[in-house]
Write a structure and sequence with these properties.
single chain, alpha+beta, Beta-Lactamase, Heat Shock Protein 90, 3 domains, five-stranded antiparallel beta sheet, five-stranded mixed beta sheet, 12 strands, disordered C terminus
Length: about 525
């Protein structure tokens, strides 16, 4: 300032205003420049502050992102650990499921569940409790508990009715989701911090309880652990139910087999008794028939002598009565012969004389024998013998008796003007014969009794015509002695058909080996 004043003092007076003006202007210019510089510097500082703020925000965002990354990494690690644990548990569960599903022995199921299972699932303590027949809980598998501790748990569980009811309804309790009071009670009872408690259910209801638990320093129970134990409980229930069902079926089978064996013995004994009775009956009939033959022969002989008039002429009335005696004697002789033949066939004392025979010639011979009876009732007898019917080995006389008995029945029960048909054809390895009529037919309830000895259907014809009821029995015996089968089909008022078969191969074997029946 002093220098400026000194400069002003040396300026001439006449030039002083100009100098002052110039100086002021210079000062103004300098001041404006300084102001401009100051404004620019202020702007620079503002920009620097804005950049600094932006930079700080960026640092803050980076810090948050870093924290998020660290948190995410921790969560991922935790999720990975949980996933590894879950996979390990699922492998253990799959292994267990395979083990317990391949046996139907209840004891073996629990034996296979023991030891490594729960350890593989990641639990230190476990119990599997099953209700017995008296509905009392029994420990089947335990680990981490003494016998006394197990008994204490059993008695407390049995007395906790609310817990039992909840389990029966299928609820699963765990340290993750159980109400606080229930959680504390279960944890105290089982002496654990983390746990899962699930019911073993079947279609018939609850059969037991599965419990797993860990101490306080172990990892907490997750929803995955609950699901895993529920699946395990279901598999145990299904396997135990299958084993029990199998045991019931096996016991029932054993009882049934025992009863069948016992019944078989009884039936065998009864059959032996029937055979003895049948043999006794046959022997009795044979003996009685033989005894009757002699007096009948004498009666028939004396009647014939008297009828010839060798002992003197007889009145006509006496002759008529003698003819009746002779006729009834013939009927009795026929009855006796039938009885003897039936008893011989039943006892196996009949020797079948097999010869090669044409069915056409045999049927024609029977037709000739029965022609008078057929003409008397004006019946039509038709035959239908297949062209490929071979000659077969049979006892001709015996088979003729079968045809005579069956055709005699057909003639007897067919009204006048009716038709009787004989059909013969090959059916597989046997010859089949069918004798049909257009007669009165047979009621269904009588069909099964027709071949019984002395059985006669209760109808008008049988009431008016005498008969022994042995013809069909004898026919059945003869056919069966030929290794064949005989049966009947009929409908009331629509006629009757008798069927019988004669096996080809068996009869050839019989004749080749001279088999006796």
């Amino acid at each position: 300032m002093n220098s400026i004043i000194s400069i002003v003092n040396h300026i001439p007076q006449e030039n002083l205003p100009v100098v002052l003006i110039v100086t002021v202007l210079s000062l103004i210019v300098i001041l404006v420049a300084l102001i401009i510089i100051l404004i620019w510097r202020i702007k620079q500082v503002s920009e620097l502050k804005a950049s600094h703020s932006k930079l700080m925000r960026s640092f803050g965002e980076l810090d948050e992102q870093a924290k998020l990354i660290v948190k995410t990494d921790l969560e991922l690690n935790k999720a990975q650990e949980e996933l590894d644990k879950r996979l390990h548990s699922l492998e253990a569960l799959q292994k267990t499921s395979r083990l317990i599903s391949t046996t139907l022995d209840e004891e073996e199921i629990f034996h296979r569940l023991d030891q490594p299972l729960m350890t593989d699932l990641g639990f230190e303590k476990y119990l599997i409790l099953i209700f017995d027949e008296k509905n009392k809980l029994q420990c089947r598998i335990h680990s981490g508990y003494t016998k006394e501790a197990t008994q204490y748990i059993l008695s407390n569980l049995e007395n906790d009715t609310s817990l039992n009811e909840a389990l029966k309804q299928g609820h699963t309790f765990s340290s993750a989701n159980a109400p606080k009071q229930r959680k504390e009670k279960i944890a105290q009872l089982f002496n654990v911090e983390h746990f899962v408690l699930s019911a073993i259910l079947t279609q018939n209801g609850i059969i037991g309880i599965v419990f797993v638990g860990n101490r306080s320093d172990a990892s907490a129970v997750t929803q995955g652990d609950e699901e895993l134990l529920s699946i395990l409980a279901n598999q145990i229930g299904q396997s135990v139910e299958n084993a029990r069902l199998f045991e019931q079926v096996y016991r029932s089978s054993q009882m049934l087999e025992s009863k069948v064996q016992e019944r078989t013995k009884q039936l065998a004994s009864a059959l032996e008794e029937v055979k003895k009775i049948s043999k006794t009956k046959s022997e009795f009939i044979s003996a009685v028939s033989h005894e009757l033959r002699t007096p009948l022969t004498s009666i028939k002989g004396y009647a014939s002598i008297l009828m010839t008039g060798k002992v003197g002429e007889l009145p006509e009335q006496v002759k008529e009565r003698l003819e009746k005696v002779n006729k009834h004697s013939d009927n009795l002789v026929k009855l006796i012969n039938d009885l003897l033949d039936i008893s011989r066939i039943e006892s196996g004392r009949v020797e079948m004389k097999f010869v090669k025979c044409s069915m056409a010639s045999l049927i024609e011979n029977v037709r000739d024998l029965l022609t008078p009876q057929i003409k008397e009732k004006n019946l039509q007898l038709e035959t239908n013998i297949a062209s490929n019917t071979p000659e077969i080995y049979i006892d001709r006389d015996q088979i003729e008796r079968v045809f005579i008995n069956l055709l005699g029945n057909a003639i007897k029960f067919t009204p006048e003007g009716g038709t009787i048909t004989i059909k013969v054809y090959l059916d597989s390895q046997q010859l089949k014969v069918e004798i049909s009529d257009t007669g009165i037919g047979i009621a269904e309830e009588d069909l099964g009794k027709l071949f019984n000895e002395f059985y006669r259907v209760d109808n008008v014809i049988n009431q008016n015509v005498k008969g022994s009821g042995l013809g069909l029995t004898l026919a059945k015996g003869i056919v069966e002695a030929h290794q064949g089968r005989i049966w009947v089909t009929s409908k009331l008022k629509k006629g009757t058909t008798f069927h019988f078969t004669l096996p080809l191969e068996r009869q050839k074997v019989a004749i080749d080996q001279n088999v006796e029946y």
